Amino acid sequence: MKVLVVGGGGREHALVWKIAQSPLVTKVFCAPGNPGIGELAENLPIRVDELDKLLAFARSEGIGLTVVGPEQPLSLGIVDLFEEHGLKVFGPRKNAAIIEASKAFSKDLMQKYGVPTAAYGVFTEVGPAEAFIDRTGVPIVVKADGLAAGKGVIIAQTRDEAVEAVRDMLSGNAFGSAGSRVVIEEFLTGEEASFLAITDGTNIIPLASAQDHKAVFDGDKGPNTGGMGAYSPAPVVTQAVHDTAMAEVLRRTVDGMAAEGRPYRGVLYAGLMVKDGRVKTLEFNARFGDPECQPLLMRMKSDIVPVLMAVAEGNLAGRSIEWHDKAAVCVVMASEGYPGDYRKGDAISGLDKAAELDDMVVFHAGTAAKDGACVTSGGRVLGVTALGATVQQAIERAYQGVGRITWQGVQYRTDIGKKALNRG
């Protein structure tokens, strides 16, 4: 079977890496891919939003399964389009991908179906938003309603900061049309966890627990990013937390989406805040997290392809996923200035030295080929991911890999995974 993966970042490199291991797969294509992916699959010069071109390729090449990585093509309706032409595709349809494409929709859904979440308000005008901020107090969270590449969230520490964020978003300065409506939420304290599950709209298979590191600097300081690193398993997700998340978050959401006439198939990612064993839902994503996907797929023992195909066919019943006992840690190496403006085109050295390490994969995120060299082309450039018998060992191995790679202006956090160790 031939498989097409849509996307070109670290998540898609991890998916291609895992899918290519399946004995069911004869060839993997990736659109648009990146230099790292190109070592495992054939890259295609097709952007993720060129749905008609992706469809034409899938039909002409006889693609048996298409796996959609990023949120943009999902929200544009790539799954609907492929299914209308009789093609097997993994991911939610457009009317279900709205769970990520509109934060207002997802908050309203959670409220309606009893999914625990923060108190909130949805606003299109500054005046009522200011009144809500005054009633709720600070710190407070201001979110762009639409897709903003994981960065449309401002945690405002002062009233002025909150009001400025609202004005910026509603005026279109900060996130364009994604911010034409804002969601303002009470600030939750606790420890964040990423809880992902694969579902066919009825049956739900939870993935291993993981924890992302959103802030750009050590100690969770600085602005939010798409993610500066992740590890799995996450000790904050105890068995009790897992059971609560499955029953009160995943089950209620999947059933609620079905009741709304928006059956959800694909990966459902719940960002959770855990405090004293209690769980509240921060947000939903309609796809594998990035960088959570990288350590999760490193730990996945099972062949992923039968599971992806079962979802595409709408029949996940009786399926299960096995996991390695080992821990995995992914450290994101980013360009100087990220998540703000950053340079591109800096030559990356040391990739061959990192590749010599055991139980290590360097997933490419924002890279390009130039004059025979691998150069930076994005904010998040690489995801150095390692396995270890313990989280501590996986951390040490990942940073050993990081230490072998460099380019001008490279930045990364030095504390990825420390929360797992600090729990004692």
From TrEMBL:
Pathway: Purine metabolism; IMP biosynthesis via de novo pathway; N(1)-(5-phospho-D-ribosyl)glycinamide from 5-phospho-alpha-D-ribose 1-diphosphate: step 2/2. Its EC number is 6.3.4.13. Its cofactor is Mg(2+); Mn(2+). GO terms for biological process: 'de novo' IMP biosynthetic process; purine nucleobase biosynthetic process. GO terms for molecular function: ATP binding; metal ion binding; phosphoribosylamine-glycine ligase activity. Keywords: ATP-binding, Ligase, Manganese, Metal-binding, Nucleotide-binding, Purine biosynthesis. It holds the Pfam family GARS_A. It catalyses: 5-phospho-beta-D-ribosylamine + glycine + ATP = N(1)-(5-phospho-beta-D-ribosyl)glycinamide + ADP + phosphate + H(+). Residues 107-313 form the ATP-grasp domain. PROSITE patterns: ATP_GRASP, GARS. SUPFAM superfamilies: Glutathione synthetase ATP-binding domain-like, PreATP-grasp domain, Rudiment single hybrid motif. SMART domains: GARS_A, GARS_C. Belongs to the GARS family. This is Phosphoribosylamine--glycine ligase. The gene is purD.
